[in-house]
Amino acid sequence: MFSSHSVTVNTPCPSVLSAVTGPVARFARQIASQGYIVAAPSSYHEFTGPEALAYDGPGTDKGNEWKIAKKVSAYDEDAELSVTALLELKTCNGRIGATGMCLGGHLAYRCALDSRVSAAVCYFATDIHSHSLGEGKNDDSLARAGDIKGELVMIFGKKDNHVPPEGRDLIRRTLTEKGLVFSWYEVAWAQHAFIRDELSKGRYDPAIAGICFEMLKEVFNRTLRSDLGPRSGEEKEVENVC
Protein backbone atom coordinates (compact mmCIF):
# COMPACT_ATOMS: atom_id res chain seq x y z
CA MET A 1 0.00 0.00 0.00
CA PHE A 2 1.30 3.45 -0.88
CA SER A 3 1.40 6.12 1.78
CA SER A 4 0.87 9.83 1.20
CA HIS A 5 4.52 10.79 1.65
CA SER A 6 7.08 10.89 -1.12
CA VAL A 7 10.85 10.72 -1.38
CA THR A 8 13.09 10.98 -4.38
CA VAL A 9 16.32 9.00 -4.08
CA ASN A 10 18.99 10.57 -6.26
CA THR A 11 21.36 8.05 -7.74
CA PRO A 12 23.62 7.60 -10.73
CA CYS A 13 21.82 4.33 -11.41
CA PRO A 14 18.74 3.64 -13.56
CA SER A 15 15.33 4.17 -12.05
CA VAL A 16 13.84 0.67 -12.48
CA LEU A 17 14.60 -1.00 -9.18
CA SER A 18 15.28 -4.37 -10.77
CA ALA A 19 18.09 -2.75 -12.80
CA VAL A 20 19.79 -0.45 -10.26
CA THR A 21 22.85 -1.50 -8.32
CA GLY A 22 22.21 -3.63 -5.26
CA PRO A 23 23.12 -0.95 -2.69
CA VAL A 24 20.84 1.65 -4.29
CA ALA A 25 17.94 -0.78 -4.69
CA ARG A 26 18.23 -1.86 -1.05
CA PHE A 27 18.50 1.76 0.12
CA ALA A 28 15.35 2.68 -1.83
CA ARG A 29 13.46 -0.33 -0.47
CA GLN A 30 14.61 0.49 3.04
CA ILE A 31 13.06 3.96 2.72
CA ALA A 32 9.92 2.53 1.12
CA SER A 33 9.58 0.14 4.06
CA GLN A 34 8.93 3.20 6.24
CA GLY A 35 5.77 3.95 4.24
CA TYR A 36 7.14 6.35 1.62
CA ILE A 37 6.67 6.39 -2.14
CA VAL A 38 10.19 6.31 -3.59
CA ALA A 39 11.33 7.44 -7.03
CA ALA A 40 14.91 6.70 -8.11
CA PRO A 41 15.65 8.84 -11.18
CA SER A 42 18.44 7.87 -13.52
CA SER A 43 21.31 10.34 -13.70
CA TYR A 44 23.02 8.85 -16.75
CA HIS A 45 20.08 8.00 -18.99
CA GLU A 46 21.58 10.16 -21.75
CA PHE A 47 24.62 7.89 -21.94
CA THR A 48 23.52 4.33 -21.23
CA GLY A 49 20.62 1.90 -21.13
CA PRO A 50 19.02 0.29 -18.07
CA GLU A 51 22.15 -1.61 -17.07
CA ALA A 52 23.62 -0.37 -13.79
CA LEU A 53 27.28 0.61 -13.62
CA ALA A 54 29.44 -1.88 -11.74
CA TYR A 55 31.39 -0.86 -8.65
CA ASP A 56 34.71 -1.60 -10.34
CA GLY A 57 37.43 0.30 -12.19
CA PRO A 58 35.68 0.58 -15.57
CA GLY A 59 32.34 1.43 -13.94
CA THR A 60 33.93 4.11 -11.78
CA ASP A 61 35.72 5.58 -14.79
CA LYS A 62 32.50 5.76 -16.81
CA GLY A 63 30.60 7.37 -13.95
CA ASN A 64 33.29 10.00 -13.43
CA GLU A 65 33.36 10.71 -17.17
CA TRP A 66 29.60 11.09 -17.49
CA LYS A 67 29.34 13.14 -14.30
CA ILE A 68 31.15 16.04 -15.95
CA ALA A 69 29.79 15.42 -19.46
CA LYS A 70 26.19 16.06 -18.42
CA LYS A 71 24.93 19.63 -18.13
CA VAL A 72 23.93 20.84 -14.66
CA SER A 73 20.65 22.02 -16.18
CA ALA A 74 19.98 18.42 -17.25
CA TYR A 75 20.52 17.16 -13.69
CA ASP A 76 18.06 19.82 -12.51
CA GLU A 77 15.53 18.82 -15.15
CA ASP A 78 15.68 15.21 -13.94
CA ALA A 79 14.98 16.39 -10.39
CA GLU A 80 12.16 18.72 -11.44
CA LEU A 81 10.44 15.99 -13.44
CA SER A 82 10.80 13.51 -10.57
CA VAL A 83 9.29 15.92 -8.04
CA THR A 84 6.45 16.76 -10.41
CA ALA A 85 5.71 13.08 -11.05
CA LEU A 86 5.49 12.39 -7.32
CA LEU A 87 3.27 15.41 -6.68
CA GLU A 88 0.87 14.26 -9.39
CA LEU A 89 0.21 10.98 -7.56
CA LYS A 90 -3.17 10.88 -5.86
CA THR A 91 -1.50 9.34 -2.82
CA CYS A 92 1.00 12.19 -2.37
CA ASN A 93 0.30 14.70 0.38
CA GLY A 94 2.37 17.40 -1.31
CA ARG A 95 5.49 16.94 0.81
CA ILE A 96 8.67 15.85 -0.93
CA GLY A 97 12.00 14.78 0.48
CA ALA A 98 15.26 14.02 -1.32
CA THR A 99 18.25 11.89 -0.44
CA GLY A 100 21.26 10.37 -2.11
CA MET A 101 24.85 9.29 -1.65
CA CYS A 102 28.05 10.58 -3.28
CA LEU A 103 26.98 12.27 -6.55
CA GLY A 104 23.43 11.54 -5.42
CA GLY A 105 24.11 13.51 -2.23
CA HIS A 106 24.99 16.55 -4.34
CA LEU A 107 21.89 15.99 -6.47
CA ALA A 108 19.72 15.73 -3.35
CA TYR A 109 21.16 19.10 -2.28
CA ARG A 110 20.31 20.56 -5.69
CA CYS A 111 16.86 18.99 -5.41
CA ALA A 112 16.37 21.13 -2.31
CA LEU A 113 16.86 24.26 -4.45
CA ASP A 114 13.29 23.47 -5.58
CA SER A 115 10.96 25.16 -3.09
CA ARG A 116 8.62 22.14 -3.31
CA VAL A 117 11.19 20.00 -1.45
CA SER A 118 10.68 20.03 2.32
CA ALA A 119 13.87 18.23 3.36
CA ALA A 120 17.01 16.67 1.93
CA VAL A 121 19.41 14.18 3.50
CA CYS A 122 22.76 14.35 1.74
CA TYR A 123 25.23 11.52 2.33
CA PHE A 124 28.89 12.49 1.63
CA ALA A 125 27.88 14.84 -1.18
CA THR A 126 30.73 15.30 -3.63
CA ASP A 127 31.75 18.35 -5.68
CA ILE A 128 29.72 20.93 -3.73
CA HIS A 129 32.82 22.43 -2.15
CA SER A 130 34.72 22.49 -5.45
CA HIS A 131 31.72 23.56 -7.61
CA SER A 132 32.91 21.01 -10.18
CA LEU A 133 29.72 19.15 -11.14
CA GLY A 134 28.59 18.88 -14.74
CA GLU A 135 29.81 20.11 -18.09
CA GLY A 136 32.45 22.78 -17.64
CA LYS A 137 32.98 21.72 -14.00
CA ASN A 138 31.53 25.01 -12.74
CA ASP A 139 28.25 24.42 -10.90
CA ASP A 140 26.48 27.04 -8.78
CA SER A 141 25.30 24.74 -5.98
CA LEU A 142 27.03 26.47 -3.08
CA ALA A 143 26.46 29.94 -4.53
CA ARG A 144 22.71 29.24 -4.53
CA ALA A 145 22.57 27.87 -0.97
CA GLY A 146 20.34 30.76 0.06
CA ASP A 147 17.62 29.49 -2.31
CA ILE A 148 17.07 26.40 -0.15
CA LYS A 149 13.94 26.76 2.00
CA GLY A 150 13.66 23.21 3.33
CA GLU A 151 15.70 21.48 6.01
CA LEU A 152 19.04 19.83 5.24
CA VAL A 153 20.93 17.01 6.86
CA MET A 154 24.58 16.85 5.74
CA ILE A 155 26.50 13.67 6.62
CA PHE A 156 30.21 13.07 6.02
CA GLY A 157 32.92 10.76 7.25
CA LYS A 158 35.98 12.31 8.90
CA LYS A 159 38.16 10.13 6.64
CA ASP A 160 36.41 11.18 3.43
CA ASN A 161 39.18 12.23 1.06
CA HIS A 162 36.69 13.14 -1.67
CA VAL A 163 35.46 16.03 0.46
CA PRO A 164 38.49 17.09 2.54
CA PRO A 165 38.26 18.97 5.86
CA GLU A 166 38.64 22.38 4.24
CA GLY A 167 35.87 21.51 1.79
CA ARG A 168 33.53 20.42 4.56
CA ASP A 169 34.36 23.59 6.49
CA LEU A 170 33.47 25.70 3.45
CA ILE A 171 30.10 24.00 3.01
CA ARG A 172 29.20 24.25 6.70
CA ARG A 173 30.27 27.89 6.92
CA THR A 174 28.29 28.83 3.82
CA LEU A 175 25.11 27.12 5.03
CA THR A 176 25.48 28.91 8.36
CA GLU A 177 26.07 32.31 6.77
CA LYS A 178 23.04 31.86 4.51
CA GLY A 179 20.84 31.10 7.53
CA LEU A 180 19.77 27.62 6.46
CA VAL A 181 18.12 25.14 8.80
CA PHE A 182 20.49 22.18 8.77
CA SER A 183 22.04 19.41 10.81
CA TRP A 184 25.68 18.49 10.33
CA TYR A 185 27.33 15.17 11.13
CA GLU A 186 30.95 14.13 10.65
CA VAL A 187 31.52 10.53 11.71
CA ALA A 188 34.89 9.56 13.18
CA TRP A 189 36.78 6.88 11.19
CA ALA A 190 34.18 6.74 8.40
CA GLN A 191 35.46 6.92 4.82
CA HIS A 192 33.66 8.01 1.68
CA ALA A 193 30.66 5.81 0.74
CA PHE A 194 30.42 4.18 4.16
CA ILE A 195 26.68 3.42 3.77
CA ARG A 196 27.12 1.54 0.48
CA ASP A 197 26.46 -2.04 1.54
CA GLU A 198 28.88 -3.87 -0.70
CA LEU A 199 32.55 -4.53 -0.06
CA SER A 200 34.24 -3.91 -3.41
CA LYS A 201 36.15 -1.01 -1.89
CA GLY A 202 36.03 -1.99 1.77
CA ARG A 203 34.29 1.10 3.14
CA TYR A 204 30.91 -0.15 4.33
CA ASP A 205 30.22 0.36 8.03
CA PRO A 206 26.85 -1.22 8.93
CA ALA A 207 26.70 0.21 12.46
CA ILE A 208 27.23 3.80 11.32
CA ALA A 209 25.00 3.29 8.29
CA GLY A 210 22.19 2.21 10.62
CA ILE A 211 22.60 5.28 12.83
CA CYS A 212 22.60 7.57 9.79
CA PHE A 213 19.40 5.95 8.52
CA GLU A 214 17.79 6.86 11.84
CA MET A 215 18.77 10.49 11.12
CA LEU A 216 16.98 10.22 7.77
CA LYS A 217 13.90 8.72 9.43
CA GLU A 218 13.79 11.50 12.01
CA VAL A 219 13.85 14.40 9.57
CA PHE A 220 11.54 12.76 7.03
CA ASN A 221 9.03 11.65 9.65
CA ARG A 222 8.96 15.16 11.09
CA THR A 223 8.88 17.15 7.85
CA LEU A 224 7.05 14.86 5.42
CA ARG A 225 4.52 12.83 7.36
CA SER A 226 3.72 14.90 10.45
CA ASP A 227 0.17 16.25 10.48
CA LEU A 228 0.96 18.86 13.12
CA GLY A 229 1.30 21.61 10.53
CA PRO A 230 4.02 24.27 10.34
CA ARG A 231 6.09 25.20 13.38
CA SER A 232 4.20 27.75 15.47
CA GLY A 233 5.52 30.75 17.37
CA GLU A 234 8.28 33.19 16.61
CA GLU A 235 12.01 32.67 16.74
CA LYS A 236 13.28 33.44 20.22
CA GLU A 237 16.71 34.35 21.41
CA VAL A 238 18.38 31.43 23.16
CA GLU A 239 19.05 32.23 26.80
CA ASN A 240 22.59 31.77 28.04
CA VAL A 241 21.59 29.81 31.13
CA CYS A 242 22.08 26.21 32.23
Explain what you see.
This protein is α/β, with parallel strands linked by helices and 242 residues long. The chain has a single domain (5-223), classed as Rossmann fold. It is 32% helix and 15% strand. The chain contains 6 helices and 6 strands; from the N terminus they run βαβααβαββαβα. The protein has helices spanning 22-32, 57-67, 72-87, 103-111, 165-177, 206-223; strands at 5-10, 36-39, 96-101, 117-123, 151-157, 182-187. Strands 2-1-3-4-5-6 form a 6-stranded parallel β-sheet, sandwiched between helices. The chain is globular and about 55 Å long.
Fold topology:
Elements: E1 5-10, H1 22-32, E2 36-39, H2 57-67, H3 72-87, E3 96-101, H4 103-111, E4 117-123, E5 151-157, H5 165-177, E6 182-187, H6 206-223
Parallel strand pairs: 1-2, 1-3, 3-4, 4-5, 5-6
